[in-house]
Amino acid sequence: MASIGKRPYHHGDLRNALIDATLALVDEKGIDGFTMTDAARRAGVSGAAPYRHFADRNALVATASAEGFAALHQVLLAAVQASAGDPAAVAAELAAHYVKFAEASAARFALMFSSGIDKAAYPELMSAITQPQVLLEDAVRALPAVTGPAGKEASALWSIAHGVATLAVNGLLDVPEGRESRASDAAKDIVRTWLTGLNQTRAGRTMIPG
Fold first, then answer.
1. Distance from chain centroid for Cα 193
2. Phi/psi of residue 26, each to 5°?
3. How confident is the model at residue 178, as a pLDDT?
4. Residue 193 φ/ψ region, left for φ over 0, alpha for ψ in the -120 to 50 degree band, beta for the rest
5. How far apart (Å, rounded) are the C-alpha atoms in residues 108 and 128?
6. Alpha helices in 44-181 (DSSP H)
7. Which residues of 46-67 are buried (b: 16+ CB within 10 A; e: fewer)?
8. For 94-120, what is the HEC assignment?
9. Which residues of the chain have pLDDT under 70?
């Protein structure tokens, strides 16, 4: 798994120190393998200190997850900006950037999607989750083959990106050697195949009389 960058702890930065500690613990022990006390110990503070910022372990995990989704949103925005406005290129780059995000921080990625908490209980987390979803919907809505509500296509694109990312971070993706970023290139290839199918489906519908 990718290493977790550490922010130096100092007075007033306990919140970020605890989030970094949580990611490091997820990387080492898995989602369910640590306690609030473990996070405090890793951050170098007393067992009572985390409660200045978080009501309990779930609140800490929710905040760390929300930061992850916010970071993912920024990565996806960069994908859109790098694609020169071409809708098909945007879709492919979104999937590729998604995969790169997961590969860069496997612990954060795992925490975001496997935290085991009730996400609906944390409005900040739900708002953060919505941001990349809206961005994906906006992107697929620009595709010529999408003529109605974009929810289904956005879910399909997210599923492609997430599936490749999950396989990649678990070492299960079988793609040809010799590529700079094999997993992200695989994601692009799959999205292009999916887009070809969308375009063919739309073309077939337009040829049906009435």
1. 22
2. -60, -40
3. 54
4. alpha
5. 14
6. 57-81, 87-104, 106-114, 123-141, 151-169
7. eeeebeeebeebbbbbbbbbbb
8. HHHHHHHHHHHCHHHHHHHHHCCCCHH
9. 1-12, 175-181, 203-210
